[in-house]
Write a structure and sequence with these properties.
Elements: E1 3-4, H1 8-14, H2 24-42, E2 51-55, E3 61-65, E4 69-73, H3 92-103
Length: 104
């Protein structure tokens, strides 16, 4: 399965949209239509069978597929733990594999 996995800033930049989101709801409202466009119009993957995985920093992440829609997952750490997070970019490949398993 082909996956497209940018972070939220990269995804919005591809669509020439500014990344001005302060709340989780604002982020969902900005990201969801872009994911639907990639799945329904661009048809990510062979015959539209791919997935879009978006890493959204403190807001968690989401995985979108044409057959299952979009699922949002909270960040592993809470706001209270934010100062203790050392590397938020590590493990992209393993993250993608786990995300794909969760959408099946």
């Amino acid at each position: 399965m082909l996956t497209f996995r940018p972070n939220h800033e990269e995804l919005l930049a591809i669509y020439a949209q500014p990344c001005i989101t302060s709340t989780f709801q604002e982020l969902q409202e900005r990201i969801s239509p872009v994911i639907h466009h990639l799945l329904d119009v661009v048809e990510v993957g062979f015959n539209g069978g791919g997935a879009v995985v978006v890493r959204c920093g403190r807001h968690g992440s989401c995985v979108g597929t044409k057959s299952k829609g979009i699922k949002w997952f909270p960040a592993y750490f809470t706001e209270k733990d934010a100062g203790r997070v050392i590397d938020v970019s590590g493990g992209k490949s393993s993250f993608t594999i786990v995300g794909m398993k969760l959408t099946k």
